[in-house]
Amino acid sequence: MIVFVVCCQLTALVVRAQEPILQLPDSLKTDSIPPPLYPFLSNDSLISYYVVEDTAEYTYGMICADLDYFLTTYPDLVHDQPMGQSEFGLELRTIRIGRPALNKRSVFLVGNIHAREDFSSKLLMKFLNVYLLAIDGKSTLYPNAKLLLDSIDIYITPVANPDGLKIAHDDLAGIEQAFALVKDSIFVEDSYTEWKANGLGIDLNDTFDDGNFELKKGGVVHTKPASEGYKGLIPAEANETQALQNFVLAKRPLITASFHTKGNIFFWADAKTHPIFKNVDTEIVQKAAAVSGFRVSSISKNPADYGCGLENYVRSKLGLIGVCVELSRGDKTRFQHPDNMFNLEVWERAWQLPYLYIENAVIYGSRIEENARLYMGN
After folding, report:
1. DSSP label at residue 300
2. What angle do CA 351, 296, 275 make, to 5 degrees?
3. Among 19, 86, 225, 290, which is most exposed with the fewest C-beta within 10 angstroms?
4. Chain-centre distance of CA 138, in angstroms?
């Protein structure tokens, strides 16, 4: 298990530039990753409080059970937030961390839009576990965990694609009949273990209605349902996409962070919407790079390549900050790294990132809201 005995100050690398397309420092364009900041693997002092499975397969059923545990154990802090259902009728389980009364401002953390990328749900569940321990005073990893809830609500959807996750895990209980009706019509790139799409063979992160659906080419390799690379016939065709779009339209989170696998890189800006943020997005991504060692992508210029992800939808439709975070080393395969590599590949590098987005939604809240107001013409 992991030791949570260190707290740290998140440092800001603030760059202000006059040009709408910014030149990032060379240090943020490198593939090099710094050594872990702290010896997380040397102590198990919190083992009696620890809930989330971080060394073996972590299934949708286990995630739901752990969410129920947190709801029961922390009833004044963890609240169920209905969002909708998958194509096969599974709940898109979402929780709100916050005071009993809703806060005006929020941040939204999303995992497992792509089925096989379950390091993303594992990160968000482990973060949730430790964040609550920090509020309880059992961990010093997130020092202002309780104080931040005075200013912001935290929404977490650990599994945005539960049908796909169950297919990738060969765990078809509850969806077996529905999947049996369609599976023969879905092209499988490799094996079910590498399944990326939803249960109907639609690659969800190519489907958001950001205005670029007809242009979308990057990653799209199939014209019919497939385990990956098929965007569907119309924008937001999938139930899961519709539910996520409706949620961000209703809640308008200041920052939406969508977690994926692999690459250790941030996809954070496109040429069309980047000027909206007046460098706030740049300041935040530089902080995120500083604490993780992840690369920062160049600002995307071609909608055919970058369009139709959740982060693109949030930026284009709401004028709010949306970022895609790719976790763990890339290795040019479809396979995720083994489950027992999660702590080494993800947690040691990314443990600060969910907290950083929450903290910076508070720090930059007024500026984000004003930029969005101007963008939306309100």
Report:
1. B
2. 115
3. 19
4. 26
Beta-carbon-side half-sphere exposure of residue 244 (alpha carbons within 13 Å): 36
Residue 17 covered by a domain: no
Q: Which long-range contacts (CB under 8 A, 24 or more apart) does 343-348 make?
A: 343/2, 343/40, 343/41, 343/54, 343/55, 344/41, 345/119, 346/119, 346/122, 346/123, 347/2, 347/40, 347/54, 347/123, 347/126, 348/36, 348/40
Tens-place pLDDT, residues 258-304: 999 999 999 999 999 999 999 999 999 999 999 999 999 999 999 98
**What phi and psi values does residue 82 have, to the nearest 5 degrees?**
-60, 135
Rounded to two decimals, the pTM is 0.89
Residue 271: CATH number of its domain: 3.40.630.10
Which DSSP state fits 378?
-
Residue 364 within a domain: yes
Residue 11 inside a domain? The answer is: no
Q: In this structure, is residue 51 part of a structural domain?
A: yes
- The 3-state DSSP class for residue 189 equals coil
Domain that includes residue 130, residue range: 26-376
Crossing angle between the packed helical segments 365-376 and 353-363, to the nearest 10 degrees: 70
Q: Which residues contact 114 (CB under 8 A, 6 or more apart)?
A: 120, 161, 164, 196, 203, 204, 205, 228, 260, 261
Taken in order 141, 56, 109, 129, is the CA torsion positive or negative? negative
Return the H-helix or E-strand segment holding 350.
Answer: helix 348-350
Rounded CA-CA distance 311/300 in Å is 12
Helix (H) or strand (E) holding 19: none
- Other Cβ atoms less than 10 A from the Cβ of 130: the count is 25
Q: Are 233 and 79 in contact (CB under 8 A)?
A: no
Structural domain count, the chain: 1
Could you count the other beta carbons within 10 Å of the beta carbon of residue 263? 19
Would you state the structure tokens that stand for residue 40, as one six-digit string? 């997380």
pLDDT digits (tens, 9 = 90+) for 219-257: 899 999 999 999 999 999 999 999 999 999 999 999 999
